[in-house]
Write a structure and sequence with these properties.
The protein is mainly β and 824 residues long. α1 (2-21) crosses α2. It is globular, with a radius of gyration of 27 Å.
Length: 824
């Protein structure tokens, strides 16, 4: 059925393109399947140049298209800021954009046969005497802590698996929490402090199989081909962002082509997908863009490809954007995305339950999750250098799970006898249903005051609708009796979170400065904060600049934590234990120096940055213990804490270095390194290593690309990753046996360290450009040398071992991710 739907979708998109081009459906199919070969293939480029803050067009901007072996071409932006190049030979080019009084932009672009290249180019006002300062990307988004998410890099770097969140793991100070998940740890902070935004509004965790209290998952439901102009923020970010102490993914969906229809089809290990874009009205330049994906892991598991687990996940996701520009400077857009995922982890059917990355070893687990976002945005450019934007959206995340108790030794004995234990022999021990829905709205207004001052004010509001229901009972190994059902969550609440802000940007003789204040109020706990922010960028010369940032940041806790009610009788409604938790607060300071070598994108960039972060009001247990929320949010487990109070603290500081040679002349390299400390105090007031205090992180990435037959691209890339091991401590064997999970002795927590983590990834790809069609095949091999990196310790019920049934689990072994993609 799913295959039939994919074939129908392919026929529909090819037929749509056939109608657009005036060809019959048979002619278009013949053109796609048997394309005629031309001696020199060309494509067109369209772009728009505008001021970043006010979105005003920059007519007269000079645009140069440069290539070392092809004659340079130039053009001037028209009255609307638009420019174009026709009949561009397929290859990589350097695009250079200059405008009097603005920072010159230099960037590398790739021209393919199958799709017209559409570029949005925001420019920033330059300091008075440094009008030729170059920006080596299409957007310099903030003085400190900002990184552009370049979708071209996603297909160039090894180990990304086509996900934006995994791409940022090569940045200094950032590491992945788990090979099987895409959670990230930013400078020692908990992964649960990462915030997600789409089109200006906050959204739930946009990953399949997401667990409450986490920001990642095994597979992202965001298709990277939907993205444009997106950024990742860490450190002392601007006043326009809040409710996080570590980092933000600020994602923007691109507009579909307003001139021609294009389709992409892909088949790979992570899924089969299809996307289509094109004009709704060429006269009005309105467009559409949509994509859909279906998991294919079950197919490759049947081919005996080692996926690291015997549980086979199933998922589906889709995204869309409709864009309607008007001649008066108004743009209205509608956008949405959603995904559904399901996995059954049946220990009762596994001969080796240790081979299981997604669940516990003493139960059958049935898990479902669903996430959806839909919204509309309004943008208006006014005369007098004013810009207004507003977005209204509805988002929801739902998780449902059911667990049945299983005694693994008994099951393995049955499997060895080729018996099958009846499902009735597996008593239920857990049921929960969590749903978090929010109605979000944001409005921002920007005005340029004189030539070099910009004022921006705005507000973001989230109305939550929180529904939690959870019941469980304690198991006793070797005892046929089970504890009574206990209700831990039962709540229905509708709090509101309001975040106003004001920001001023000033450009002086040799520096630019961004100062602002962010406010935050959460009605559930009646807590509020007022957070000053400051960022500065000082140009010592055209190629040397200093960066600095300082800010106060705060974050409300994960919503479900407020409503945990302990274990009450099933007939009684639990009383929430943690509704008095306040916000976690943190002071961030960052300072750095950056040096550019060379006159264009072939130059190397070296950056050195130091940071210091002090977190306070961190939730810890009221009773004396080593527990802290700073160590949570990195796995598939919900937290069921005792009463929490804001008496904890944490400290993160370090130095980071980046050496980058941007892609040019067929290759790139990137080295990032960090030396750091991450400490915390629980309610026992003892300063300890945090779980994530590996002391160092090192990444080395290299990619080489060759042009074959004048139009095809062959690429080989590799990545080396090394980090210090996670921290843990001596287990409490008696309590671990009682709770059927690993419990560490509180007083000696995080006094032991796992061995260092090391991994090598390899990516090989080949792209074939033919008239109006592009084929691409790629293989991304994770953990090329099959190194056994320690993930964690886990409790294996029913086993007889001297170490108290505690075993070591390892990260993913060698795993090839591959895909074949066709774009027409």
């Amino acid at each position: 059925m799913k295959l039939a739907c994919a074939i129908l979708l392919a026929c529909f998109t090819i037929n749509l393109q056939a109608q657009t081009t005036g060809l019959s459906l048979l002619q278009r199919v013949r053109q796609v399947v048997f394309p005629t070969k031309d001696s020199i293939l060309t494509q067109s480029i369209q772009g728009r140049v505008f001021e970043k803050q006010t979105q005003q067009p920059l007519p007269g901007a000079n645009v140069m298209l440069l290539h070392e072996n092809i004659p340079s071409r130039g053009t001037i932006a028209d009255s609307a800021g638009n420019f174009s190049f026709d009949k561009v030979i397929l290859d990589r080019y350097t695009l250079k954009i200059s405008y009097v009084g603005y920072k010159e932009i230099v960037s590398t672009i790739l021209v393919n046969a199958s799709r017209q290249l559409i570029i949005e180019i925001p420019m920033e006002v330059a300091p008075f005497y440094l009008t030729e300062v170059k920006i080596h990307s299409l957007d310099e988004v903030a003085p400190v802590g900002a990184n552009l998410i370049n979708t071209d890099d996603l297909n160039r770097h090894a180990g990304n698996r086509g996900e934006a969140i995994r791409k940022v793991a090569v940045l200094p100070g950032i590491q992945n929490a788990d090979d099987s998940r895409n959670d990230i740890i930013i400078r020692g902070n908990s992964p649960q402090s990462v915030l997600w935004r789409v089109e200006g509004i906050n959204i739930p965790n946009p990953n399949h199989f997401n667990i409450p209290g986490t920001s990642g998952g095994p597979v992202s439901l965001i298709n990277d081909r939907m993205l444009a102009g997106s950024a990742f923020y860490s450190g002392a970010f601007n006043a326009g962002f809040g409710n996080t102490t570590s980092g933000i993914f600020d994602l923007q969906f691109r507009n579909g082509s307003s001139q021609a229809n294009h389709s992409t089809f892909q088949l790979g290990l992570l899924g089969a997908e299809a996307s289509n874009e094109g004009p709704l009205s060429k006269a009005h330049k309105s467009s559409y863009l949509f994509s859909i994906r279906q998991s294919t892991i079950a197919i490759f598991d049947a081919m005996n490809i080692n996926l690291g687990t015997e549980a086979i996940p199933h998922y589906t996701d889709a995204s869309f954007k409709l864009n309607f520009p008007f001649e008066d400077g108004t743009t209205v857009s509608f956008f949405g995305m959603g995904g559904y995922s399901k996995v059954d982890i049946l220990i009762s059917q596994q001969a080796d339950p240790t081979k299981n990355l997604y669940g516990e070893k003493d139960r059958d687990q049935y898990f479902k999750s669903a996430t959806g976002v839909i919204g509309a945005s309004f943008k208006k450019t006014f005369t007098g250098s004013k810009f207004l934007s507003a977005t209204l959206g509805l988002s929801s995340g739902r998780v449902v799970s059911h667990h049945d108790f299983v005694n693994p030794p008994d099951i393995r004995q049955a499997l060895n006898r080729y018996d099958s234990a009846p499902a009735a022999s597996f008593p239920p021990i857990l049921d929960y249903r969590f749903q978090e829905t929010r109605l979000s709205g944001t409005i921002n207004f920007t005005k340029r005051v004189a030539k070099r001052n910009h004022l921006k004010v705005g507000v973001l509001a989230d109305q939550y609708f929180l529904e939690y229901l959870d019941s469980s009972r304690i198991t006793h190994m070797g005892d046929s009796a089970f504890g009574k059902w206990r209700r831990r969550w039962q709540s229905n609440s509708h709090p509101i979170l309001v975040q106003p802000f004001a920001e001023w940007k000033f450009v002086a003789n040799s520096f630019d400065l961004v100062a602002g204040v962010h406010g935050q109020y959460f009605s559930l706990t009646k807590s509020w904060s007022l957070e000053p922010r400051l960022g500065i960028r000082y140009y010592v010369t055209k190629s040397v600049k200093l960066n600095g940032g300082l800010g106060l940041h705060s974050q409300v806790q994960q919503p479900y934590l407020y409503f945990y009610g302990g274990e009450n009788d099933e007939q009684k409604r639990p009383i929430p234990l943690n509704k008095n938790m306040g916000m976690t607060r943190g002071v961030n300071t960052v300072a750095g120096i950056e040096k550019f070598f060379g006159a264009d994108t072939t130059g190397t960039r070296i950056k050195l940055e130091m940071y210091y972060q002090y977190l306070y009001n961190v939730p810890v247990e009221k009773e004396r213990s080593s527990f802290s929320l700073i160590n949570t949010g990195a796995d598939f487990t919900r937290l069921t804490p005792n009463r929490l109070v804001n008496n904890g603290s944490a400290l993160n500081y370090g130095v980071e270095v980046t050496v980058e040679r941007p892609f040019a002349k067929g290759y790139l390299f990137l080295f990032t390194g960090s030396l750091f400390q991450s400490k915390y105090k629980g309610s026992d007031k003892i300063l300890r290593n945090s779980d994530f205090n590996g002391h160092y992180i090192a990444n080395l990435l290299f990619t080489r690309e060759w042009t074959l037959k004048k139009q095809n691209l062959f690429s080989v890339g590799t990545k080396f990753v090394s980090t210090g091991g996670r921290w843990y401590g001596p287990p409490d064997y008696e309590k671990s046996k009682e709770e059927q999970q690993v419990v560490y002795l509180s007083d000696t927590k995080n006094t032991w360290q796992f061995p260092a983590y090391f991994r090598v990834d390899l990516r090989v790809s080949y792209k074939i450009n033919l008239p109006s069609i592009t084929h691409e095949v790629a293989v991304d091999v994770i953990n090329l040398f099959n190194r056994k990196n320690v993930l964690k310790e886990t409790y294996l019920p029913g086993e007889t071992q001297n170490d108290g049934n505690i075993i070591t689990e390892y990260q993913l072994g060698t795993l090839p991710f591959f895909y074949y993609r066709i774009t027409i």
